[in-house]
Amino acid sequence: MSLSEAQVRHVARLARLALTDEEIDGLGAQLDDILSYAEKVGQVATVDVAPTSHPYPLANVAHVDEARPSLPREDALANAPRVEGNRFHVPRIVGEEQ
Amino acid sequence: MTTTATRYEVVIGLEVHVELATETKMFCGCRTEFGGEPNIRTCPVCLGMPGSLPVPNGEAVTSAIRLGLALGCAITPRSQFHRKNYFYPDMPKNYQISQYDVPICENGRLEVPTAEGAAEIGVTRVHMEEDTGKSMHVGESGRIRGASHSLVDFNRAGIPLLEVVSEPDVRSAEQARAYLAELRGIVLALGISDAKLEEGSMRCDANVSLRPMGTEAYGTRVEVKNMNSLRSLYRAVGYEIDRQTVLLDAGEEVVQETRHWDEAAGATSTLRAKEEAFDYRYFPDPDLVPIAPDAAWIEELRAGLPELPAEIRARLTSTYGLGAEQAVTLVDAGLGPLLDEAVGAGAPPSEAGKWLANEVLAWCRDEGVEPADVPLTGEQLSELIDLVDHGALSTKLAREVLPGVLGGEGSPAEVAKARGLEQVSDEGELGQMVDDAIAAQPEAAAKIRAGNDKAIGALVGAVMKASRGQANPQRVNELLRERLGI
Protein backbone atom coordinates (compact mmCIF):
# COMPACT_ATOMS: atom_id res chain seq x y z
CA MET A 1 0.00 0.00 0.00
CA SER A 2 1.39 3.33 -0.97
CA LEU A 3 -0.63 6.53 -0.93
CA SER A 4 -0.10 8.95 -3.78
CA GLU A 5 0.54 12.60 -3.04
CA ALA A 6 -2.81 13.43 -4.66
CA GLN A 7 -4.60 11.08 -2.26
CA VAL A 8 -2.92 12.70 0.74
CA ARG A 9 -3.90 16.17 -0.50
CA HIS A 10 -7.48 14.96 -1.05
CA VAL A 11 -7.74 13.58 2.49
CA ALA A 12 -6.26 16.82 3.86
CA ARG A 13 -8.79 18.86 1.92
CA LEU A 14 -11.67 16.71 3.17
CA ALA A 15 -10.44 17.34 6.72
CA ARG A 16 -10.09 21.06 5.96
CA LEU A 17 -6.36 20.98 6.76
CA ALA A 18 -4.03 23.39 5.00
CA LEU A 19 -0.75 21.47 4.74
CA THR A 20 2.65 22.57 3.46
CA ASP A 21 4.52 20.40 0.94
CA GLU A 22 6.83 19.15 3.70
CA GLU A 23 3.87 18.19 5.85
CA ILE A 24 2.31 16.35 2.92
CA ASP A 25 5.47 14.26 2.60
CA GLY A 26 5.81 13.58 6.32
CA LEU A 27 2.15 12.90 7.03
CA GLY A 28 1.84 10.86 3.85
CA ALA A 29 4.55 8.52 5.08
CA GLN A 30 2.88 8.24 8.48
CA LEU A 31 -0.50 7.50 6.88
CA ASP A 32 1.20 4.80 4.83
CA ASP A 33 2.58 3.23 7.99
CA ILE A 34 -0.85 3.21 9.62
CA LEU A 35 -2.44 1.66 6.56
CA SER A 36 0.20 -1.08 6.26
CA TYR A 37 -0.26 -1.83 9.94
CA ALA A 38 -4.01 -2.15 9.52
CA GLU A 39 -3.50 -4.23 6.39
CA LYS A 40 -2.11 -7.03 8.53
CA VAL A 41 -5.68 -7.77 9.56
CA GLY A 42 -6.38 -8.59 5.92
CA GLN A 43 -3.79 -11.35 6.08
CA VAL A 44 -5.56 -13.19 8.90
CA ALA A 45 -9.19 -12.37 8.12
CA THR A 46 -10.90 -15.08 6.14
CA VAL A 47 -14.15 -15.03 4.24
CA ASP A 48 -16.02 -16.79 7.02
CA VAL A 49 -15.16 -14.14 9.61
CA ALA A 50 -17.67 -11.28 9.62
CA PRO A 51 -16.21 -7.76 9.73
CA THR A 52 -16.11 -6.47 13.30
CA SER A 53 -17.50 -3.01 13.88
CA HIS A 54 -16.98 -3.02 17.62
CA PRO A 55 -14.48 -4.78 19.87
CA TYR A 56 -16.97 -5.60 22.65
CA PRO A 57 -19.30 -8.60 22.27
CA LEU A 58 -22.29 -6.40 22.97
CA ALA A 59 -25.43 -5.62 20.97
CA ASN A 60 -28.76 -3.87 21.45
CA VAL A 61 -27.68 -1.29 24.00
CA ALA A 62 -30.53 1.21 24.00
CA HIS A 63 -32.01 3.96 26.11
CA VAL A 64 -35.58 3.99 27.37
CA ASP A 65 -37.65 6.63 25.59
CA GLU A 66 -38.15 8.89 28.60
CA ALA A 67 -37.08 12.51 28.60
CA ARG A 68 -34.25 13.65 30.80
CA PRO A 69 -33.42 17.26 31.59
CA SER A 70 -31.60 19.19 28.86
CA LEU A 71 -28.85 21.68 29.56
CA PRO A 72 -29.85 25.17 30.68
CA ARG A 73 -29.51 27.33 27.57
CA GLU A 74 -26.72 29.45 29.10
CA ASP A 75 -24.69 26.28 29.53
CA ALA A 76 -25.47 25.05 26.02
CA LEU A 77 -24.29 28.34 24.56
CA ALA A 78 -21.38 28.83 26.98
CA ASN A 79 -18.77 27.51 24.54
CA ALA A 80 -20.11 29.33 21.49
CA PRO A 81 -17.55 31.82 20.14
CA ARG A 82 -20.48 34.12 19.35
CA VAL A 83 -24.17 34.09 20.18
CA GLU A 84 -26.97 35.99 18.47
CA GLY A 85 -30.64 35.68 19.39
CA ASN A 86 -29.89 32.63 21.57
CA ARG A 87 -28.45 30.85 18.53
CA PHE A 88 -24.90 29.83 17.68
CA HIS A 89 -23.42 32.52 15.43
CA VAL A 90 -21.37 30.79 12.73
CA PRO A 91 -19.34 32.32 9.89
CA ARG A 92 -20.77 32.62 6.41
CA ILE A 93 -21.37 29.18 4.92
CA VAL A 94 -20.33 28.87 1.31
CA GLY A 95 -21.53 25.93 -0.66
CA GLU A 96 -24.43 23.63 -0.25
CA GLU A 97 -27.72 24.69 1.21
CA GLN A 98 -29.58 22.32 3.49
CA MET B 1 -48.80 20.34 -17.24
CA THR B 2 -47.01 17.04 -17.12
CA THR B 3 -46.12 15.90 -20.59
CA THR B 4 -46.89 12.31 -21.37
CA ALA B 5 -43.89 12.10 -23.61
CA THR B 6 -43.81 8.76 -25.37
CA ARG B 7 -40.25 9.31 -26.60
CA TYR B 8 -38.78 9.01 -23.12
CA GLU B 9 -39.30 6.78 -20.17
CA VAL B 10 -39.39 8.58 -16.84
CA VAL B 11 -37.21 7.07 -14.09
CA ILE B 12 -37.74 8.36 -10.56
CA GLY B 13 -36.39 7.23 -7.22
CA LEU B 14 -37.68 8.80 -4.01
CA GLU B 15 -35.93 9.40 -0.72
CA VAL B 16 -38.29 10.05 2.14
CA HIS B 17 -37.28 11.17 5.62
CA VAL B 18 -39.70 10.45 8.45
CA GLU B 19 -39.21 12.26 11.74
CA LEU B 20 -40.22 9.85 14.50
CA ALA B 21 -42.69 10.88 17.18
CA THR B 22 -40.60 9.49 20.03
CA GLU B 23 -40.45 11.38 23.28
CA THR B 24 -36.64 11.66 23.16
CA LYS B 25 -33.92 12.13 20.58
CA MET B 26 -32.15 9.29 18.75
CA PHE B 27 -29.06 9.13 20.95
CA CYS B 28 -29.86 11.16 24.09
CA GLY B 29 -32.66 11.98 26.50
CA CYS B 30 -33.53 15.47 25.16
CA ARG B 31 -37.15 16.00 24.18
CA THR B 32 -38.17 16.02 20.50
CA GLU B 33 -40.92 18.68 20.60
CA PHE B 34 -41.50 20.97 17.63
CA GLY B 35 -40.86 24.71 17.85
CA GLY B 36 -40.22 26.74 20.98
CA GLU B 37 -37.25 28.88 21.95
CA PRO B 38 -33.93 28.03 20.23
CA ASN B 39 -31.35 25.80 21.93
CA ILE B 40 -33.46 24.74 24.92
CA ARG B 41 -33.43 21.00 24.11
CA THR B 42 -29.74 20.15 23.90
CA CYS B 43 -27.23 18.22 25.97
CA PRO B 44 -23.56 17.20 25.70
CA VAL B 45 -24.49 14.29 23.37
CA CYS B 46 -26.48 16.22 20.78
CA LEU B 47 -24.08 19.16 21.02
CA GLY B 48 -21.21 16.79 20.22
CA MET B 49 -19.20 17.59 23.37
CA PRO B 50 -15.97 15.63 23.73
CA GLY B 51 -16.36 12.58 25.95
CA SER B 52 -20.12 12.27 25.55
CA LEU B 53 -21.47 8.94 24.34
CA PRO B 54 -24.56 8.30 22.20
CA VAL B 55 -27.00 5.52 23.20
CA PRO B 56 -29.69 4.56 20.64
CA ASN B 57 -33.35 5.12 21.43
CA GLY B 58 -35.02 1.70 21.78
CA GLU B 59 -38.39 3.07 20.69
CA ALA B 60 -36.85 4.45 17.48
CA VAL B 61 -35.37 1.01 16.72
CA THR B 62 -38.81 -0.54 17.27
CA SER B 63 -40.39 2.04 14.93
CA ALA B 64 -37.79 1.31 12.24
CA ILE B 65 -38.48 -2.43 12.39
CA ARG B 66 -42.25 -1.93 12.34
CA LEU B 67 -42.03 0.32 9.27
CA GLY B 68 -39.71 -2.20 7.60
CA LEU B 69 -42.18 -5.01 8.27
CA ALA B 70 -45.09 -2.94 6.97
CA LEU B 71 -43.12 -2.38 3.76
CA GLY B 72 -42.35 -6.09 3.40
CA CYS B 73 -38.64 -5.61 4.10
CA ALA B 74 -36.23 -8.17 5.45
CA ILE B 75 -35.01 -7.13 8.90
CA THR B 76 -31.21 -7.25 9.08
CA PRO B 77 -30.08 -9.66 11.81
CA ARG B 78 -27.16 -7.43 12.73
CA SER B 79 -27.04 -3.84 11.56
CA GLN B 80 -24.81 -1.03 12.69
CA PHE B 81 -24.39 2.72 12.73
CA HIS B 82 -21.89 4.61 10.59
CA ARG B 83 -20.51 8.11 10.77
CA LYS B 84 -21.23 10.25 7.73
CA ASN B 85 -18.48 12.86 7.80
CA TYR B 86 -19.01 16.35 6.47
CA PHE B 87 -18.35 19.90 7.54
CA TYR B 88 -21.49 21.89 7.99
CA PRO B 89 -22.49 23.78 11.11
CA ASP B 90 -25.88 22.09 11.41
CA MET B 91 -24.16 19.04 12.96
CA PRO B 92 -21.89 20.02 15.82
CA LYS B 93 -19.96 16.73 15.69
CA ASN B 94 -18.93 17.28 12.05
CA TYR B 95 -20.59 13.99 11.29
CA GLN B 96 -24.09 12.62 11.27
CA ILE B 97 -24.75 9.21 12.78
CA SER B 98 -26.48 7.21 10.07
CA GLN B 99 -26.51 3.70 8.64
CA TYR B 100 -24.54 2.76 5.57
CA ASP B 101 -23.92 -0.70 4.13
CA VAL B 102 -26.00 -2.61 6.68
CA PRO B 103 -29.26 -0.72 7.18
CA ILE B 104 -31.83 -2.15 9.58
CA CYS B 105 -34.38 -2.98 6.82
CA GLU B 106 -33.87 -3.95 3.17
CA ASN B 107 -35.69 -5.20 0.07
CA GLY B 108 -39.28 -4.19 0.56
CA ARG B 109 -42.02 -3.22 -1.83
CA LEU B 110 -45.01 -0.99 -1.90
CA GLU B 111 -48.02 -1.39 -4.15
CA VAL B 112 -49.65 1.97 -4.71
CA PRO B 113 -53.04 2.78 -6.18
CA THR B 114 -52.85 5.56 -8.78
CA ALA B 115 -55.28 7.20 -11.15
CA GLU B 116 -53.35 5.33 -13.88
CA GLY B 117 -53.74 1.92 -12.19
CA ALA B 118 -51.76 0.09 -9.50
CA ALA B 119 -47.96 0.40 -9.51
CA GLU B 120 -45.44 -1.65 -7.59
CA ILE B 121 -42.47 0.30 -6.26
CA GLY B 122 -39.47 -1.45 -4.75
CA VAL B 123 -38.18 -0.21 -1.40
CA THR B 124 -34.41 -0.49 -1.35
CA ARG B 125 -33.93 0.16 2.33
CA VAL B 126 -35.07 1.84 5.52
CA HIS B 127 -32.32 3.17 7.74
CA MET B 128 -32.03 5.07 11.00
CA GLU B 129 -30.24 8.37 11.41
CA GLU B 130 -30.36 11.61 13.34
CA ASP B 131 -31.78 14.92 12.17
CA THR B 132 -29.62 18.04 11.85
CA GLY B 133 -29.97 21.41 13.56
CA LYS B 134 -31.74 24.33 11.89
CA SER B 135 -29.68 27.11 10.28
CA MET B 136 -31.02 30.59 9.76
CA HIS B 137 -29.11 32.58 7.16
CA VAL B 138 -28.74 36.25 7.97
CA GLY B 139 -28.81 38.60 5.00
CA GLU B 140 -31.16 40.25 2.58
CA SER B 141 -32.28 37.11 0.78
CA GLY B 142 -32.57 34.84 3.81
CA ARG B 143 -30.92 32.23 1.59
CA ILE B 144 -27.41 30.91 2.00
CA ARG B 145 -26.04 32.90 -0.93
CA GLY B 146 -25.25 36.44 0.01
CA ALA B 147 -25.73 35.76 3.72
CA SER B 148 -23.33 37.55 6.07
CA HIS B 149 -23.43 34.76 8.63
CA SER B 150 -25.73 32.04 9.90
CA LEU B 151 -27.39 31.24 13.22
CA VAL B 152 -27.86 27.69 14.39
CA ASP B 153 -30.49 26.16 16.65
CA PHE B 154 -29.75 22.60 17.78
CA ASN B 155 -33.19 21.72 19.17
CA ARG B 156 -33.79 19.52 16.10
CA ALA B 157 -30.27 18.06 16.07
CA GLY B 158 -30.48 14.40 17.02
CA ILE B 159 -34.22 13.86 16.50
CA PRO B 160 -34.69 10.30 15.18
CA LEU B 161 -35.24 9.99 11.45
CA LEU B 162 -36.02 7.02 9.26
CA GLU B 163 -34.89 7.35 5.67
CA VAL B 164 -36.89 5.28 3.20
CA VAL B 165 -35.18 4.86 -0.17
CA SER B 166 -37.15 3.58 -3.14
CA GLU B 167 -35.88 1.71 -6.17
CA PRO B 168 -35.93 3.81 -9.38
CA ASP B 169 -39.29 2.22 -10.20
CA VAL B 170 -41.46 5.33 -10.22
CA ARG B 171 -42.56 6.17 -13.76
CA SER B 172 -44.65 9.34 -13.48
CA ALA B 173 -45.48 12.35 -11.32
CA GLU B 174 -48.76 10.66 -10.38
CA GLN B 175 -46.95 7.51 -9.22
CA ALA B 176 -44.55 9.66 -7.18
CA ARG B 177 -47.48 11.38 -5.49
CA ALA B 178 -49.28 8.08 -4.89
CA TYR B 179 -46.14 6.46 -3.43
CA LEU B 180 -45.64 9.28 -0.95
CA ALA B 181 -49.35 9.26 -0.04
CA GLU B 182 -49.26 5.50 0.55
CA LEU B 183 -46.06 5.66 2.60
CA ARG B 184 -47.54 8.49 4.65
CA GLY B 185 -50.69 6.42 5.23
CA ILE B 186 -48.60 3.50 6.48
CA VAL B 187 -46.55 5.74 8.78
CA LEU B 188 -49.77 7.22 10.20
CA ALA B 189 -51.35 3.78 10.64
CA LEU B 190 -48.25 2.67 12.55
CA GLY B 191 -48.45 5.85 14.65
CA ILE B 192 -44.68 6.36 14.47
CA SER B 193 -44.71 9.96 13.19
CA ASP B 194 -47.23 12.73 12.64
CA ALA B 195 -45.91 12.72 9.04
CA LYS B 196 -46.75 16.36 8.29
CA LEU B 197 -45.22 17.30 4.95
CA GLU B 198 -46.02 20.96 5.53
CA GLU B 199 -44.15 21.06 8.83
CA GLY B 200 -41.24 18.93 7.66
CA SER B 201 -41.87 15.90 9.88
CA MET B 202 -41.99 14.01 6.57
CA ARG B 203 -39.73 15.19 3.75
CA CYS B 204 -39.31 13.89 0.21
CA ASP B 205 -36.53 14.31 -2.35
CA ALA B 206 -36.98 13.04 -5.89
CA ASN B 207 -34.25 11.81 -8.24
CA VAL B 208 -35.60 12.33 -11.73
CA SER B 209 -34.10 11.21 -15.03
CA LEU B 210 -35.31 10.35 -18.51
CA ARG B 211 -34.10 7.72 -20.97
CA PRO B 212 -35.15 7.01 -24.54
CA MET B 213 -38.09 4.61 -24.53
CA GLY B 214 -36.95 1.02 -24.81
CA THR B 215 -33.41 1.60 -23.55
CA GLU B 216 -31.89 0.30 -20.32
CA ALA B 217 -29.11 2.74 -19.36
CA TYR B 218 -30.15 5.48 -16.95
CA GLY B 219 -30.08 9.10 -18.07
CA THR B 220 -28.41 11.83 -16.03
CA ARG B 221 -30.38 12.31 -12.86
CA VAL B 222 -31.38 15.51 -11.14
CA GLU B 223 -32.25 15.64 -7.46
CA VAL B 224 -35.24 17.85 -6.66
CA LYS B 225 -35.76 19.12 -3.13
CA ASN B 226 -38.13 21.27 -1.10
CA MET B 227 -41.53 19.75 -1.88
CA ASN B 228 -43.73 20.20 1.16
CA SER B 229 -47.02 18.72 0.09
CA LEU B 230 -48.24 15.84 -2.07
CA ARG B 231 -49.37 18.39 -4.61
CA SER B 232 -46.00 20.12 -4.70
CA LEU B 233 -44.23 16.77 -5.22
CA TYR B 234 -46.59 16.11 -8.14
CA ARG B 235 -45.97 19.56 -9.62
CA ALA B 236 -42.20 19.56 -9.07
CA VAL B 237 -41.73 16.16 -10.67
CA GLY B 238 -44.00 17.13 -13.57
CA TYR B 239 -42.01 20.33 -14.07
CA GLU B 240 -38.71 18.46 -13.99
CA ILE B 241 -39.93 15.87 -16.52
CA ASP B 242 -41.00 18.67 -18.86
CA ARG B 243 -37.73 20.56 -18.39
CA GLN B 244 -35.60 17.51 -19.17
CA THR B 245 -37.82 16.57 -22.13
CA VAL B 246 -37.25 20.00 -23.67
CA LEU B 247 -33.48 19.75 -23.13
CA LEU B 248 -33.22 16.25 -24.62
CA ASP B 249 -35.45 17.15 -27.57
CA ALA B 250 -33.15 20.08 -28.33
CA GLY B 251 -30.16 17.72 -28.28
CA GLU B 252 -28.81 19.30 -25.10
CA GLU B 253 -27.53 17.51 -22.05
CA VAL B 254 -29.12 17.31 -18.64
CA VAL B 255 -26.65 18.49 -16.01
CA GLN B 256 -26.34 16.34 -12.90
CA GLU B 257 -27.26 18.68 -10.08
CA THR B 258 -29.54 19.39 -7.15
CA ARG B 259 -32.49 21.64 -7.90
CA HIS B 260 -34.75 23.55 -5.54
CA TRP B 261 -38.53 23.55 -6.09
CA ASP B 262 -40.08 26.99 -5.74
CA GLU B 263 -43.76 26.48 -4.99
CA ALA B 264 -44.81 30.06 -5.78
CA ALA B 265 -42.89 30.20 -9.06
CA GLY B 266 -43.93 26.65 -9.98
CA ALA B 267 -40.39 25.93 -11.16
CA THR B 268 -37.11 24.34 -10.09
CA SER B 269 -33.77 26.17 -10.07
CA THR B 270 -30.17 25.09 -9.56
CA LEU B 271 -29.21 24.71 -5.91
CA ARG B 272 -25.79 23.20 -6.43
CA ALA B 273 -24.01 21.43 -9.23
CA LYS B 274 -22.47 18.07 -8.44
CA GLU B 275 -18.95 18.54 -9.72
CA GLU B 276 -17.78 15.57 -7.74
CA ALA B 277 -19.48 12.92 -5.70
CA PHE B 278 -19.53 13.82 -2.02
CA ASP B 279 -16.88 11.95 -0.11
CA TYR B 280 -18.49 11.28 3.23
CA ARG B 281 -15.87 8.75 4.38
CA TYR B 282 -18.42 6.55 6.10
CA PHE B 283 -17.00 4.32 8.80
CA PRO B 284 -18.56 2.27 11.61
CA ASP B 285 -19.21 4.45 14.65
CA PRO B 286 -17.02 2.99 17.39
CA ASP B 287 -19.28 4.58 20.04
CA LEU B 288 -22.20 2.34 19.10
CA VAL B 289 -22.68 -1.41 19.28
CA PRO B 290 -24.70 -3.36 16.66
CA ILE B 291 -28.47 -3.65 16.59
CA ALA B 292 -29.31 -7.36 16.55
CA PRO B 293 -33.06 -7.80 16.97
CA ASP B 294 -34.20 -11.17 18.23
CA ALA B 295 -36.18 -13.17 15.64
CA ALA B 296 -38.99 -13.87 18.11
CA TRP B 297 -39.30 -10.17 18.89
CA ILE B 298 -39.49 -9.34 15.18
CA GLU B 299 -42.35 -11.83 14.79
CA GLU B 300 -44.07 -10.28 17.79
CA LEU B 301 -43.82 -6.86 16.15
CA ARG B 302 -45.09 -8.29 12.87
CA ALA B 303 -48.11 -9.83 14.60
CA GLY B 304 -48.83 -6.48 16.26
CA LEU B 305 -48.92 -4.45 13.03
CA PRO B 306 -52.15 -2.48 12.61
CA GLU B 307 -54.45 -2.80 9.59
CA LEU B 308 -52.51 -1.05 6.81
CA PRO B 309 -54.03 1.29 4.19
CA ALA B 310 -54.10 -1.38 1.45
CA GLU B 311 -55.94 -3.76 3.78
CA ILE B 312 -58.38 -1.04 4.85
CA ARG B 313 -59.10 -0.17 1.21
CA ALA B 314 -59.70 -3.83 0.38
CA ARG B 315 -62.13 -4.09 3.30
CA LEU B 316 -63.97 -0.88 2.36
CA THR B 317 -64.54 -2.11 -1.18
CA SER B 318 -65.33 -5.75 -0.40
CA THR B 319 -67.22 -5.51 2.90
CA TYR B 320 -68.75 -2.05 2.60
CA GLY B 321 -69.14 -2.09 -1.17
CA LEU B 322 -67.50 1.33 -1.66
CA GLY B 323 -65.95 2.28 -5.00
CA ALA B 324 -62.17 1.90 -5.34
CA GLU B 325 -61.62 5.62 -5.87
CA GLN B 326 -63.68 6.58 -2.82
CA ALA B 327 -61.81 4.00 -0.73
CA VAL B 328 -58.48 5.60 -1.76
CA THR B 329 -59.80 9.08 -0.92
CA LEU B 330 -61.06 8.01 2.52
CA VAL B 331 -57.97 6.00 3.47
CA ASP B 332 -55.54 8.68 2.24
CA ALA B 333 -57.39 11.18 4.42
CA GLY B 334 -57.20 8.82 7.40
CA LEU B 335 -61.00 8.66 7.63
CA GLY B 336 -61.19 4.84 7.77
CA PRO B 337 -61.69 4.70 11.56
CA LEU B 338 -64.47 7.32 11.47
CA LEU B 339 -66.24 5.40 8.72
CA ASP B 340 -66.03 2.21 10.81
CA GLU B 341 -67.41 4.11 13.79
CA ALA B 342 -70.34 5.49 11.79
CA VAL B 343 -71.16 2.06 10.37
CA GLY B 344 -70.88 0.64 13.89
CA ALA B 345 -73.43 3.24 15.00
CA GLY B 346 -75.84 2.01 12.34
CA ALA B 347 -75.15 4.15 9.27
CA PRO B 348 -75.35 2.47 5.86
CA PRO B 349 -71.68 2.27 4.66
CA SER B 350 -72.36 3.78 1.24
CA GLU B 351 -74.08 6.84 2.75
CA ALA B 352 -71.41 7.30 5.42
CA GLY B 353 -68.68 6.94 2.76
CA LYS B 354 -70.35 9.55 0.57
CA TRP B 355 -70.72 12.06 3.41
CA LEU B 356 -67.11 11.63 4.52
CA ALA B 357 -65.57 11.73 1.04
CA ASN B 358 -67.59 14.77 -0.04
CA GLU B 359 -69.02 17.06 2.65
CA VAL B 360 -66.66 16.27 5.51
CA LEU B 361 -63.48 16.43 3.40
CA ALA B 362 -64.60 19.68 1.77
CA TRP B 363 -65.19 21.19 5.22
CA CYS B 364 -61.70 20.07 6.33
CA ARG B 365 -60.14 21.65 3.26
CA ASP B 366 -61.99 24.93 3.79
CA GLU B 367 -61.19 25.07 7.49
CA GLY B 368 -57.61 23.83 7.17
CA VAL B 369 -58.30 20.91 9.50
CA GLU B 370 -56.38 17.64 9.17
CA PRO B 371 -59.18 15.17 8.15
CA ALA B 372 -57.98 12.56 10.65
CA ASP B 373 -58.54 15.19 13.38
CA VAL B 374 -62.02 16.22 12.22
CA PRO B 375 -64.25 16.92 15.26
CA LEU B 376 -66.97 14.47 14.28
CA THR B 377 -68.01 11.17 15.84
CA GLY B 378 -69.37 8.16 14.01
CA GLU B 379 -72.46 8.49 16.21
CA GLN B 380 -73.10 12.04 14.96
CA LEU B 381 -72.63 11.11 11.30
CA SER B 382 -74.92 8.13 11.72
CA GLU B 383 -77.57 10.35 13.35
CA LEU B 384 -77.36 12.87 10.51
CA ILE B 385 -77.85 10.14 7.91
CA ASP B 386 -80.72 8.74 9.94
CA LEU B 387 -82.46 12.14 10.03
CA VAL B 388 -82.31 12.28 6.25
CA ASP B 389 -83.51 8.69 6.00
CA HIS B 390 -86.56 9.38 8.12
CA GLY B 391 -87.41 12.54 6.30
CA ALA B 392 -86.71 14.89 9.18
CA LEU B 393 -84.06 16.57 7.03
CA SER B 394 -83.61 16.85 3.30
CA THR B 395 -80.09 16.16 2.01
CA LYS B 396 -79.77 19.85 1.27
CA LEU B 397 -80.70 20.82 4.84
CA ALA B 398 -78.44 18.12 6.25
CA ARG B 399 -75.53 19.77 4.41
CA GLU B 400 -76.32 22.94 6.32
CA VAL B 401 -76.55 21.06 9.62
CA LEU B 402 -73.14 19.42 9.23
CA PRO B 403 -70.98 22.57 9.69
CA GLY B 404 -72.91 23.29 12.90
CA VAL B 405 -72.13 19.82 14.22
CA LEU B 406 -68.46 20.21 13.21
CA GLY B 407 -68.45 23.63 14.83
CA GLY B 408 -69.38 22.04 18.14
CA GLU B 409 -72.96 23.33 18.25
CA GLY B 410 -74.36 19.96 19.30
CA SER B 411 -75.83 16.78 17.84
CA PRO B 412 -77.37 16.91 14.33
CA ALA B 413 -80.91 17.00 15.77
CA GLU B 414 -79.96 19.81 18.15
CA VAL B 415 -78.27 21.83 15.40
CA ALA B 416 -81.24 21.35 13.06
CA LYS B 417 -83.58 22.59 15.77
CA ALA B 418 -81.41 25.50 16.88
CA ARG B 419 -80.88 26.68 13.31
CA GLY B 420 -84.51 26.17 12.39
CA LEU B 421 -83.57 23.72 9.65
CA GLU B 422 -85.94 20.92 10.54
CA GLN B 423 -87.95 19.65 7.66
CA VAL B 424 -91.60 20.63 7.91
CA SER B 425 -93.68 17.48 8.21
CA ASP B 426 -96.43 19.05 10.27
CA GLU B 427 -99.66 18.11 8.50
CA GLY B 428 -101.46 21.37 9.24
CA GLU B 429 -98.65 23.59 8.05
CA LEU B 430 -97.89 21.46 5.01
CA GLY B 431 -101.59 21.11 4.15
CA GLN B 432 -101.96 24.88 4.08
CA MET B 433 -98.96 25.27 1.77
CA VAL B 434 -100.30 22.52 -0.51
CA ASP B 435 -103.70 24.16 -0.70
CA ASP B 436 -102.05 27.51 -1.50
CA ALA B 437 -100.01 25.95 -4.28
CA ILE B 438 -103.09 24.31 -5.87
CA ALA B 439 -104.98 27.59 -5.67
CA ALA B 440 -102.09 29.49 -7.24
CA GLN B 441 -101.72 27.10 -10.17
CA PRO B 442 -105.20 25.92 -11.19
CA GLU B 443 -104.00 24.89 -14.65
CA ALA B 444 -101.37 22.51 -13.28
CA ALA B 445 -103.93 21.12 -10.86
CA ALA B 446 -106.38 20.50 -13.70
CA LYS B 447 -103.72 18.67 -15.73
CA ILE B 448 -102.94 16.42 -12.83
CA ARG B 449 -106.58 15.66 -12.25
CA ALA B 450 -106.81 14.81 -15.95
CA GLY B 451 -104.12 12.19 -15.44
CA ASN B 452 -100.91 14.06 -16.37
CA ASP B 453 -98.72 12.78 -13.56
CA LYS B 454 -95.66 14.77 -14.61
CA ALA B 455 -97.34 18.08 -13.89
CA ILE B 456 -97.18 17.32 -10.16
CA GLY B 457 -93.52 18.38 -10.18
CA ALA B 458 -94.45 22.02 -10.63
CA LEU B 459 -96.70 21.98 -7.56
CA VAL B 460 -94.16 20.12 -5.40
CA GLY B 461 -91.59 22.71 -6.49
CA ALA B 462 -93.90 25.56 -5.50
CA VAL B 463 -94.42 24.10 -2.02
CA MET B 464 -90.71 23.51 -1.55
CA LYS B 465 -90.06 27.11 -2.53
CA ALA B 466 -92.71 28.40 -0.18
CA SER B 467 -91.18 26.41 2.66
CA ARG B 468 -87.65 27.61 1.76
CA GLY B 469 -86.62 24.01 1.20
CA GLN B 470 -87.80 22.79 4.56
CA ALA B 471 -90.86 20.84 3.48
CA ASN B 472 -90.58 17.08 3.33
CA PRO B 473 -90.90 16.52 -0.45
CA GLN B 474 -92.25 13.01 -0.10
CA ARG B 475 -95.02 14.12 2.24
CA VAL B 476 -95.83 17.06 -0.04
CA ASN B 477 -96.22 14.67 -2.92
CA GLU B 478 -98.57 12.47 -0.92
CA LEU B 479 -100.67 15.41 0.26
CA LEU B 480 -101.00 16.78 -3.28
CA ARG B 481 -102.21 13.42 -4.53
CA GLU B 482 -104.71 13.19 -1.69
CA ARG B 483 -106.07 16.69 -2.33
CA LEU B 484 -106.30 16.17 -6.07
CA GLY B 485 -107.88 12.78 -5.68
CA ILE B 486 -105.39 10.69 -7.65
Note down, in words, how this protein is organized.
- The complex is a heterodimer of chains A (98) and B (486).
- Chain A has 98 residues and is mainly α.
- Helix content of chain A is 40%, strand content 7%.
- Chain A has three helices and two strands; from the N terminus they run αααββ.
- Chain A has helices at residues 5-14, 21-44, 73-77; strands at residues 83-84, 87-91.
- Chain A has a two-stranded antiparallel sheet with strand order 1-2.
- The longest helix of chain A has 24 residues, at 21-44.
- Chain B has 15 helices and 14 strands.
- Chain B is elongated and about 95 Å long.
- With 486 residues, chain B is α+β, with helices and mostly antiparallel strands.
- Chain B folds into three domains: 2-298, no CATH class; 307-418, no CATH class; 427-484, Arc Repressor Mutant, subunit A (Orthogonal Bundle).
- Strand 2 of chain A pairs antiparallel with strand 8 (149-153) of chain B.
Looking at this protein, list some descriptive labels.
heterodimer; A: 98 residues; mainly alpha; two-stranded antiparallel sheet; 40% helix; B: 486 residues; alpha+beta; Arc Repressor Mutant, subunit A; nine-stranded mixed sheet; three-stranded antiparallel sheet; 14 strands; 38% helix; elongated
User: What distance separates the N and C termini of chain A?
Assistant: 37 Å
Could you give a short account of the major beta sheet of chain A? 2 strands, antiparallel
Mean pLDDT of chain B, to the nearest integer, reads 91
Name the helicity range of chain B. 25-40%
Question: Total helix count of chain B?
Answer: 15
Categorize the overall geometry of chain B: elongated
* Count of discrete structural domains of chain B: 3
Contiguous runs where pLDDT drops below 50 for at least 5 residues of chain B: none
The tally of beta strands of chain B, per DSSP, is 14
Number of strands of chain A: 2
Strand content of chain A: 5-15%
Helix content of chain A: 25-40%
- Taking all Cα atoms into account, the compactness measure Rg of chain B is 29 Å
